[in-house]
Every structure is written in C-alpha cells, then in structure tokens.
Design brief:
single chain, about 325 residues, alpha/beta, 9 helices, 7 strands, elongated
Length: about 325
C-alpha cells in the first residue's frame, strides 16, 4: 500500500478494525481517513442505537453488526475472527481521538519484522501537555498495575490504537468485554512472548469521548487487572503474602514461647491465631508456587506455538 506526505511506501496488506458504538457523528470521517492508510477497513457496530452502521457503510467500510451492545472486547473479537492471519491488523478507536495518519508509523516495525505487536503511546516521550490531569493520574495507576501484572514496561497500557502481526490473532482471549480489553490484550501478548514495541501517536481530547464516568471506568479496569494478575503473577498475589503471613505467625509463636518460658500464662486465643497464620500462610505460599509452575508451562507452550507459526510463515 502507499502512504502520503512523503512517508515511505509500505509493502503488506493492512486491515483496520474499528469497534464503534453510537459514533455516527465521527465514524464517517474516521473510515474515510483510515482507508487512506489501510487496504481493508472493518467497522464492528456494537449494537448502536444511531446510524453508525449506515454511515460507516456509506464511507466504504465493511460493516458487521451486533444486535445488542456487547462491549469493546466482543467487537474486537468479531473483527479478528474475520481475518486469516496474513494481513497486519490495526485497531483504532472511532471517537476521533486518534489520527489515522499515524497508521504507517504503527505498522512499520511489523512490516520490517522488528515487532509482533506495536502499541501507540501518548506518553512515550513524556506527558502530553493537553492531557487532563485527572485522566493522566488514573491512567498512571492502571499503567503500573498492568505492567506489574504483565511483566512489561509499557508507557500507555490503555491505548486503543495498536498494530498486530497477522499470525498473533489467535493468542488473544477477548474475555474482557469492556474497556479492560486493552490490559488483557497486553497480558496475552506478554504471556505468548510477543515482541512488543511502542511508537508515539497524537491524541485529541476536544472530542466527545466515552460517556462513562472516568473514575468508575478506571476502578472497573483496575479490578479486572488485579483479578487477571492472580493467575499471571501468582508469586506476587499468593506466595509473597503467604510467606509474610506465615512469618508473622512464627514470630508470634516465638514471643509466645518466650513469655511462657518466663512464667507467663498460656493464652489459647493467641496460640490459635498463631497456628492459623502459619497454616494459612503456608497454604497460600504453596498455592502460589503451584500456580506459578502451571503459568510457566502455559507460557512456554504459547511461546512455542508462536515460534512455530513464524517458522511456517517464513517457509511459505
């Protein structure tokens, strides 16, 4: 395909997936601009109550429609299910925040074989001055939680503007139906051992964005990230707290024995608490170790599948 404004010609089919919900005001222009940089544009209308699907079709997009609103994760799953794994995949939000002209910058590392997934970042080279402070503070919390859970160092974990190598499409679960899908996809990519790269993108905050309260949205995403972390980072979630709990019980026991040896009375309540702490802490620590081993086995299995997929593609 060809790009504009002196950007080098990019070789490789590019498919853009645009999840949309009640975006009839912006969807037409987004589709038209995206078509300048993508060979195929798919709009997944997630049960919109307005003319989103009609306007997207008039603008030249292939339109799929959910009868009811299922969430962004479900919309992306529908779009990904259409692809055969050959084309480079680009996901872009349809509220007008993202500029489709950044697509060539996103797909370039993939077409050059330098990455399997590229994350468009608003903060790669520092904070954007026009980012509302309340929004950036919330995003920073989600960035830290997501990175700890995934073992990554991504600067913009909640970005919806991303590119993926075609063969990666099968590694994503799409279990999160809402906006927590951004963190989940990073977790899946990290688990599969994908080569992840970030590039800087522009963003606009003067457009009509999500109608959901940002605090409610942030808390919901954070809860989902922490829940997902239980399986992906069991040593952090189970083993470390378990060892701390068991150590506290042992320390209580030593103090109890020392006091009893010096003639103190036998305190059955404290002894019971000590025993419970040691037993529960040991159980949590052992649970974390077992889950960690299972997680590593699954991680290696996915990594081998991805490596086999790349080898098959090179052989073809």
């Amino acid at each position: 395909m060809h790009s504009k404004d002196g950007v080098e010609t990019l070789v490789g089919e590019i498919t853009a997936i645009l999840p949309a919900y009640n975006e009839e005001v912006s969807i037409g222009s987004i589709v038209l601009r995206t078509r300048e940089y993508a060979d195929r544009v798919i709009v997944v209308d997630d049960g919109s109550l307005d003319r989103t699907a009609e306007v997207a079709a008039l603008a030249g997009a292939q339109v799929l429609r959910h009868e009811m609103n299922l969430g962004k994760g479900a919309a992306l799953k529908t779009g990904f299910s259409l692809l055969n794994g050959d084309a480079v995949i680009v996901t872009i939000d349809t509220d007008g925040q993202h500029d489709p002209a950044d697509i060539p910058r996103l797909v370039r590392p993939i077409l050059r074989g330098e990455a399997d997934m590229v994350n468009g970042s608003r903060y790669l080279n520092g904070n954007k001055r026009d980012t509302p402070i309340y929004r950036r503070m919330g995003q920073k919390v989600l960035d830290v939680a997501t990175n700890i859970g995934c073992g990554l160092s991504v600067t913009d974990t909640q970005s919806g503007f991303r590119a993926f190598a075609g063969p990666t499409k099968g590694i994503f679960r799409f279990e999160q139906k809402g906006l927590a899908i951004e963190s989940e996809m990073l977790a899946d990519a990290a688990s599969a051992g994908l080569r992840i790269k970030e590039v800087e993108i522009g963003v606009r905050y003067d457009v009509n964005c999500s109608s959901e309260n940002p605090v409610v949205h942030g808390l919901r995403v954070l809860i989902n990230v922490l829940q997902d972390m239980q399986l992906r980072k069991p040593l952090i979630c189970f083993t470390i707290p378990g060892l701390a709990m068991a150590a506290a019980g042992i320390l209580m026991g030593l103090e109890f024995l020392q006091a009893f040896a010096h003639g103190g009375s036998l305190q059955y309540g404290l002894a019971l608490i000590m025993i419970l702490l040691v037993l529960l802490g040991s159980f949590l620590a052992l649970t974390g170790m077992v889950l960690h081993i299972l997680s590593r086995v699954m991680h290696e299995f996915k990594r081998e599948l991805m490596a086999q997929g790349r080898q098959n593609k090179e052989a073809d």
